[in-house]
Design goal:
By secondary structure, this protein is of the alpha+beta class. The chain has 6 helices and 9 strands, in the order βαββαββααβαβαββ.
């Protein structure tokens, strides 16, 4: 996984040079753009950092196999690219170990992969890690549960404060609440203890 760096005054020229050098289109690359102001006249200079998406996918797959090998677990990794997001689904006979209690081991693995790439390249990449579609099923259950709570808040008028959750799950909550008329949701608190409050809307 090699990080390519280009510097210059014209961003379009830098991009075109990167596309030419790497023989790739923009949708095959992860790009990060920094700006600097140099010299007495403070002229703008661009710094373009580039990663080839397929290289990142290969790195992640090898990284996952190394981690699970040390855990004594055999896995098969299915990795797909969707725009600027990498979707990973793991399959294993020991999926319960990889998922952990309430999905905490799964979330830790996802965070570890994200942070490792960020430290190595300086580029933040959106990664969604799932294990045998555990998150997908959990998210469907969460959405259904939140809709039920929202309807109860609408009936009782009593607001509900949910347990802290990550930004992805909060987004599911907000979307679920928005589908129920007469209630609203709002995130409060500081990370990692940010939570959602569901309230009845006063007419």
């Amino acid at each position: 996984m090699k990080l390519f760096k280009y510097e210059g005054k014209n961003l379009d020229e830098l991009k075109n040079k990167a596309f030419s050098d790497l023989n790739a289109s923009e949708n095959e690359l992860f790009l990060k753009i920094d700006e600097e102001f140099v010299g007495i006249l403070k002229k703008k200079k661009y710094i373009l950092y580039v990663l080839i998406k397929e290289d990142v996918v290969k790195y992640i797959k090898n990284y996952i196999y190394d981690i699970t090998k040390y855990m004594g677990i055999n896995v098969n990794a299915e990795i797909k690219l969707r725009d600027n997001m990498i979707l990973i689904n793991l399959f294993s006979e020991d999926c319960s170990v990889l998922i952990g209690k309430n999905g905490k081991t799964l979330e830790s693995l996802q965070t570890l992969i994200k942070n490792t790439i960020l430290v190595k390249t300086g580029i933040k990449i959106n990664i969604f890690l799932d294990i045998e579609n555990y998150k997908e099923h959990s998210n469907i259950k969460l959405e259904s549960h939140i809709k039920k709570i929202a309807k109860e808040v609408k009936m009782s008028g009593i607001e509900v404060k949910l347990d802290p959750m990550n930004s992805f799950k909060r987004r599911i909550v907000h979307n679920a609440v928005s589908s129920v008329n007469g209630v609203s949701s709002k995130s409060e608190g500081e990370e990692p203890n940010r939570y959602v409050i569901i309230r009845k809307i006063d007419n």
